[in-house]
Amino acid sequence: MRPPCGQPPRPSLPTWQHGGVTAATHSSLFPQVPESADAVLDGLDPEQREVAMALHGPVCVLAGAGTGKTRAITHRIAYGVRAGILQPTSVLAVTFTNRAAGEMRGRLRQLGAGGVQARTFHSAALRQLQYFWPKAVGGDLPRLLERKVQLVAEAAARCRIRLDRNELRDVTSEIEWSKVTQTVPADYPAVVAKTQRDAPRDPAEISQIYGMYEQLKRDRSVIDFEDVLLLTVAILQDRHDIAEHVRRQYQHFVVDEYQDVSPLQQRLLDLWLGDRDTLCVVGDASQTIYSFTGATPDHLLNFRTRHPNATVVKLVRDYRSTPQVVHLANGLLGQARGRAAEHRLELVSQREPGPDPVHTEYADEPAEAEGTARRIRDLIAAGVPAGEIAVLYRVNSQSEVYEQALADAGVPYQLRGAERFFERAEVREAGIALRGAARAGGNDSLLDDAEGLPAEVRAVLSTKGWTTEPPAGSGAVRDRWESLAALVRLAEDFEQAKPGATLSDLVAELDERAAAQHAPTVQGVTLASLHSAKGLEWDAVFLVGLNEGMMPITYAKTDEQIEEERRLLYVGVTRARFHLSLSWSLSRSPGGRAGRRPSRFLNGLRPGSVALGTRGAAGGGGIERGPGPVAKRGRRGPARCRVCGKTLTDAGEMKLMRCDDCPSDMDEVLYERLRDWRAVRAKEIGQPAYCVFTDKTLMAIAEAVPGSAGELAGISGVGTRKLDRFGTAVLAICAGETPEDGLVDAVDEV
């Protein structure tokens, strides 16, 4: 039976043949702990089972996107622990992000293997460094420098080298790259020349800043995150007794995302292992997208050379994406070149067919953002949760125009990259309140009228800002409400999974989740860069801004850099389970010259295009022409600042028609009147304030003070629909009058 419109198909049976193996895709939130070691293997497909049972000798798992690699390796660890072959405290599983390590700990806990250490390389090294420093060096470990940017800025100033904000960030990244590739300051220029690395400034200057930065750290007795690895390596190399102590502690190692290992991390891993081969690595060379940080797939690709007797298992059954999405992903890699491409995995979808990927061409970037927002609103109306939708772009600066468009469309969103869920102030406060209510039990008057766990949680969190309806507008207040709402939903799921659970049970669950960084889902469309989307997945993914110069990025010059950009797009494509949309625009701004071209990576994939030198075309779906701008715009040149005349490219600056740092002539009194009117209007129609007009649009109106409908329509963010609906009131306010349409159109939809 076909699923309802807009809904991805769900597996109907728990067997691996029917797609029921992936714990990452629509898994049960609170699964039961398997009763036995053999039960840990239930539901694994043949290749995953082979991974889980390969507990001796070196093992290399080549795992394509969506093939259940995390499931395979966590079940491998859990099976070994539950069968008595592995001692939990003797296993160290390492990965690259706190989120991934937290997810691994959470899964191991659910499988009955909670004593296993799952950490990032840095976290594991820091723990060892803190423990052994007094013995190896003496005294206290130097203070860890949380952010090195400020010290790099001071180092540059001492070298009499001036860096702007972007250059400072780039030079800081170069220092990080140098350290993970074990390049000292004096060698940096030669290494850059040898590797043909595109340095952000003169290599001699960077070398000078790098050397001064290291000197300042020594003078102030501080270390940075890269020093954590370097110092741990140094101690393990110099002190054989300490190295043996670590090796006695950890007998078995698992490394996830092995294609992202840097030379320094590989050196640390070798020291942990010693002369043993009790190592399992998991990776996919086609997902190598962090070479700028020093990551290299060479260690993965050379694994069989270093370990001739290794067991190699390939996972190619894709449980995440539909055949249509997988077909496009395979076609994208089918055009790749280079060593990583020679080891590419041909994925085979295990899901039912879904809609074809949609390719859309737009006139300009604002039109692309508006069209994307409309499509997202349609998906949500069709039943796809907002939290299961993502908009992915190449660079973070692209986000603003999509934030604006989603806000105008009344669609909630969240920017990826914010602080971790359990570290948010409101979540910590909520945890304290819930813990206090759990201790008080029936003596807490807050719970007098609450029946059932969810009602008790709602009652407690209502004192912290949770309400049945979300607050109007966006910003900190809305973010706080979303965090509390996520806890309420978690309580509802917990009560459903464990009928009769108490508030104390939920508090214990939250404590375990916080320790594992296993956060509940915050509802809202995700806006994220392609790099930050690695390891995540959604029902619907919109890949936007797929133009030459952005994908591949303009500074990708060498064949190696171009191929990494292709892999980055591949990662984006494989984040989608069901709906996939790819789009590009012909110009940056409305009325600009339509000189842009779609990404070369789409050649042979989008209908009507031909791939050059491809090993087989792929794709599916039809190309669409995106609708033009909402308001009719005449052809005009590039947008320019009305104060200094500079060409504007930033979406927020284009809305105001001035640079952010140019003086504003905004009528403050008018702006406040518009805000007051907006608050009343939003309440009348039952929508957040930004659904009427965003703050930037109100600022633009207060600066322009339009006197006619035509002048108002010319302001970015005021389209035909909003002009018809709110124009009379806004023009009245601008004229110093009281609007007369306070309740008119209250039944309309925004």
Can you describe this structure?
With about 750 residues, the chain is an alpha/beta fold. About 45% of the residues lie in helices and about 10% in strands. The strands form four sheets. It has a seven-stranded parallel sheet with strand order 13-14-12-15-16-11-17, with helices on both faces. Helix 10 packs across helix 11, helix 17 crosses helix 18 and helix 19 runs antiparallel to helix 22. The longest helix has 22 residues. The N terminus and C terminus are likely disordered.
Measured distance between first and last alpha carbons = 34 Å
Helix content bin: 40-55%
Question: What are the segments in which pLDDT stays under 50 over at least 5 consecutive residues?
Answer: 1-27, 613-625, 628-638, 742-750
Coarse shape: globular
Strand content: 5-15%
Output the strand order for the largest sheet: 13-14-12-15-16-11-17
Q: Look at the helices and sheets and give the structural class.
A: alpha/beta
Question: Mean of residue pLDDT?
Answer: 81
Number of strands: 17
Largest sheet: 7 strands, parallel
User: What's the tally of helices?
Assistant: 28
Radius of gyration: 28 Å
Quick overview:
With 750 residues, this protein is of the alpha/beta class. Helix content is 43%, strand content 10%.
Present the secondary structure layout:
Layout: H1 37-40, H2 46-53, E1 59-63, H3 69-82, E2 91-95, H4 98-110, E3 117-120, H5 121-136, E4 143-144, H6 149-158, H7 165-180, H8 188-195, H9 203-220, E5 222-223, H10 225-238, H11 240-249, E6 252-255, H12 263-273, E7 279-283, H13 298-301, H14 303-306, E8 311-315, E9 317-318, H15 323-334, H16 339-342, E10 348-349, E11 358-364, H17 365-381, E12 389-393, H18 399-408, E13 413-415, H19 425-440, H20 453-461, H21 476-497, H22 503-516, E14 525-529, E15 538-543, H23 559-573, E16 576-587, E17 623-625, H24 651-656, H25 668-685, H26 695-704, H27 709-713, H28 720-734
Parallel strand pairs: 1-7, 1-8, 2-3, 2-6, 4-5, 6-7, 9-10, 11-16, 11-17, 12-14, 12-15, 13-14, 15-16
